[in-house]
Amino acid sequence: MGELPIGRRVAYWRGRRRMSQQVFADRLGKSKSWVDKVERGARPLDKVSTIAEIAAVLRVDQSVLLGRDVRPVADSERAGSVERIRAALSAYDIAVGRRVPDRDVSAAAQVTRGVAYAWTTYQHARYPQLTELLPELISGAQRGFAREPVSGRVPLVEAYRIGAALLTKLAETELAWLAADRAMTLATGDAVLVATAAVQLGEVLRATGRARSAVSTVRTAAYRIAPPDLDGGSSAQLSLCGTLLVQGALAASGEGDERAAADLLDEAADLADRVGDGHDHHRTAFGPTAVTAARTVAALELGDAGEAVAWHQRTVRRDGWRWLPVEHRAAHLIDAARAHLHAHDPTSAARTLLQAQSTAPAEVRHRPAARDLLADVLRSRHAPTTIVQLAAALGVTAT
């Protein structure tokens, strides 16, 4: 990353801090267009004072922006497994028609069971275990599809979906993009299968700064499968449609489009009320509580930390909170901790981050965004001893 232009480094750290271009621009007192030009390299950053202001907003040292110390926090424990996932995704045996020996092909039912177990592992936030099993799951699903394209199609799409979800979580966004793209390509022709793949594609597009594409893609996928009569739609259909609308809302909020975000969340809420809490159709965990949690993120992306905290408090008070998957709850708590920090309440941020750690330790240990947030909280002179101890245990420092 040290060889990147300074504008790209600004974009990278803005993404790590989970700021939209609009929020970043507002904090600098600049226009969104100015930020966009800087990040694209169309406008030079040649004033020391401006670089200092940007570094202060991004909460990094100026040397990081200047490329002298830009190595992000790495988790060496997962590096080898991620490379094996990369190798599995880089295999093109199916495309070139390479023959797969019978002994290397698992039965479709076995692959399907493996996919179900992998999803459970992900939803319980057991990321180290998942990074270990995912390479063989993807390879096995690819071999199964090569031998039996009809029965092997859905398991392979699901394996790619899991890979995209995990890799996005671990900030391996370009690899996540490959997995999501593979899923979308394979799903082509089946509207429901495309919609399931689009859930993860939306996440990847948001994570890579392609919010506008995310809004367009997920919205199209959602409306394509939306039942003409909502009262006649199945819970599975409504859940998938609603989840895509939520993804679109979060992408719109990242673009600073408050109206679009609100409209999409309201549409999703209408569907959620029909589905109810406690379901997990298509691994979406969609329901009223999931939509309320999404409003927390949307408010935060739009720069209203106080509103984000208020939505968080409503979320955890709902009965459906305890029915959300462990991963979903822990991820939400990290978003809420970020909201507290942006609301200038580091004590509450620390408390909420510790709740995330208690809910799903791997969410804090292995997710770069969580580790960055921990470092930010650690910088506060009000950081409690428990946060200092957690940071020490994870090897996270405030510098």
From TrEMBL:
Pfam families hit by this protein: HTH_31
Residues making up the signal peptide according to the UniProt record: none
Domain HTH cro/C1-type: residue ranges: 10-65
Xref: InterPro entries: Cro/C1-type_HTH (IPR001387), Lambda_DNA-bd_dom_sf (IPR010982), TPR-like_helical_dom_sf (IPR011990)
Name of the protein this chain belongs to: Transcriptional regulator
Cited SUPFAM superfamilies: lambda repressor-like DNA-binding domains
Organism in which the protein naturally occurs: Micromonospora andamanensis
Highest taxon listed in the record's lineage: Bacteria
PROSITE patterns listed in its UniProt record: HTH_CROC1
